[in-house]
Amino acid sequence: MDALLDLLQQEGRLPVSEMATRLGKTEAEVQQMLQDLTDKGVIFGFHAVVDRDRIGDRRVQALIEVRLTPERGGGFDSLASRIAKFDQVRNCYLMSGGYDLAVLVEGSDLREVARFVSEKLSTLEGVVSTATHFQLKVYKEAGFLASEAPVDDRLAVTP
Amino acid sequence: MKPLEERIAQQVSAIPRSGIRDFFELVQGRDDVISLGVGEPDFAAPWHIREAAIFSLEQGQTSYTSNLGMPALRESISRYVRGLFGVSYSPENEVLVTVGVSEALDLVCRAILNPGDEIIYHEPCYVSYSPSIAMAYGKAVAVETKVEDEFVLRAEDVAAAITENTRAILLNFPTNPTGAVEPVEELEKIAQLAIDHDLLVISDEIYCELLYGEESGMKPGKHVSIASLPGMRERTILLHGFSKAFAMTGFRLGYACAPPVLTEAMMKIHQYSMLCAPIMSQVAAIEALENGAEAVEQMRKAYAQRRNLVLRSFREMGIPCFSPGGAFYAFPDIRKFGISSHEFAVRLLEAEDVAVVPGTAFGQAGEGCVRACYATSYEKLELAMEKMARFVKTL
């Protein structure tokens, strides 16, 4: 299971047949493992890791620190899941430390993100404060470096 | 003036040209070759290790170190070896840091051999064994291991090669070029032979972290060092280093662990020929040993996946290939095509631009096989396997 998850996190697009080859299993076994992982909610989505800057896309991302008043009964969960449901929210984590939620928001420009924060996020009952940090440049995303792949400069034949 | 050829020392001119170098020159002239001919990882050394080396340079650590190696590194090595091999060596006087295992092997040979003394080693093997012995005025005695026997070194074959001049047995498991791992029962028999005949054992265990165990190699295998067998620590020189598991080939760093008298003798040569191993490599090596385990396991898993690919591909091509227990080499048996391993490698290169190394580059016992290194990116490996499949159909 672990090896399969490692593989999916690094190269999620591999066909089942190839995953089977790499892991030394049959296709049916891998198919079954994938099904189990999905059923259990271990895998809850697939996506490509992209750098949109390279196609001149101007959309912006911001990390927003959100402080909440925990609700009686629900703690942070019910408010956090309400926030997470907005399409603009890419990631949403409950944090230890000086604030409660780290919310990664994406918008087509600065104004859209600002509007989301001021009109949607900060007006929710229970949201005490927000602090918005705009992302300037991506160096690494989901474990992948944004720079060029290294070249193989080994000698062709060595002992 | 006497021709310069005649001025070369006999033991040097007697060393034949390296088969690897011949083949390298053949490959070198071609573009777009997918090379399975390398003997090193395709990964760069893990970043935290490189970063430690950079930091040491920033700090101005550019001096000589103790001849034996930095005390902190020797302590790390001692701890690491105890953890991995279950054998304790004192960092004070039983660990010598060298410029790769290659230097360590040269030091051992020079430290223990008198002219005419013999060392028994197994073929096919790493290219430097026989020359290193010869350059130390020793006689290299090869014992063949066979593809039918999955390249296990049989104690009875070793026994048959022992003479009154035998001083040591040189072992390399997991083996370059075959990937073979010695079964423990056989290792025990060889240990008994060494004890019975009062021989030293030189054990090059450079690939010992790269073992493929259960779940088609996704789980690591368990390494047994001959030094850990009863009565063997006192007569074994254990050689290990950072090149393979930590992907640090260019750092050129290895070490020898042996009882004090042997370590002292090797150190004597090392101090006059090398003085010490490069300090930035030593600093990087401390970081590797202290914090590198996770990176090693990640690379090992990547090799395991590629190993599964090449083994399946050879099976589908109808090329017999035993399942190598370690290292990052497959050594398929190409005898069914009725051509020599050299011809196979040359024709594969010419037809499909895929380089493998003829088994004979690793000794005559390698005839009939080629070495395919799977330490290359999965995509390239897949392409190489497709090309090779196309090629063997033409034979």
Topology of helices and strands:
The complex is a heterodimer of chains A (159) and B (395).
Chain A: H1 2-10, H2 16-23, H3 27-39, E1 60-68, H4 77-84, E2 89-94, E3 101-107, H5 110-121, E4 127-134, E5 140-141, E6 144-145
Antiparallel strand pairs in A: 1-3, 1-4, 2-3, 5-6
Chain B: H1 10-13, H2 19-28, E1 34-35, H3 47-58, H4 71-85, E2 95-98, H5 100-112, E3 118-123, H6 129-135, E4 139-144, H7 155-161, E5 166-171, H8 184-196, E6 200-204, E7 236-241, E8 254-257, H9 260-273, H10 279-291, H11 293-317, E9 329-330, H12 341-352, E10 354-355, E11 357-358, E12 370-373, H13 378-393
Parallel strand pairs in B: 1-10, 3-4, 3-5, 5-6, 6-7
Antiparallel strand pairs in B: 2-8, 7-8, 9-12, 11-12
Key words describing this protein structure:
heterodimer, A: 159 residues, alpha+beta, Alpha-Beta Plaits, 2 domains, 4-stranded antiparallel sheet, two-stranded antiparallel ribbon, 6 strands, 31% helix, B: 395 residues, alpha/beta, Aspartate Aminotransferase, domain 1, Aspartate Aminotransferase, domain 2, 7-stranded mixed sheet, 3-stranded antiparallel sheet, 12 strands, 41% helix
Overview of this structure, please?
The complex is a heterodimer of chains A (159) and B (395). Chain A has 159 residues and is of the alpha+beta class. Chain A has helices spanning 2-10, 16-23, 27-39, 77-84, 110-121, and strands at residues 60-68, 89-94, 101-107, 127-134, 140-141, 144-145. Chain A has a 4-stranded antiparallel β-sheet with strand order 2-3-1-4. Chain A has a two-stranded antiparallel sheet with strand order 5-6. In chain A, β5 (140-141) and β6 (144-145) form a beta hairpin. In chain A, 18% of the residues are buried. By secondary structure, chain B is of the alpha/beta class. Chain B has 2 domains: 4-45 and 294-393, Aspartate Aminotransferase, domain 1, CATH 3.90.1150.10; 47-292, Aspartate Aminotransferase, domain 2 (3-Layer(aba) Sandwich). In chain B, 41% of the residues lie in helices and 12% in strands. Chain B has helices at 10-13, 19-28, 47-58, 71-85, 100-112, 129-135, 155-161, 184-196, 260-273, 279-291, 293-317, 341-352, 378-393; strands at 34-35, 95-98, 118-123, 139-144, 166-171, 200-204, 236-241, 254-257, 329-330, 354-355, 357-358, 370-373. In chain B, the strands form 3 sheets. In chain B, strands 2-8-7-6-5-3-4 form a 7-stranded mixed β-sheet, with helices on both faces. A 3-stranded antiparallel β-sheet of chain B has the order 9-12-11. In chain B, strands 1-10 form a two-stranded parallel sheet. In chain B, α6 links the parallel β3 (118-123) and β4 (139-144). The N and C termini of chain B lie far apart (52 Å). The model of chain B has no long low-confidence stretch (mean pLDDT 96). The chains are: A alpha+beta (159), B alpha/beta (395). At the A-B interface, α1 and α2 of A face α2 and α11 of B.
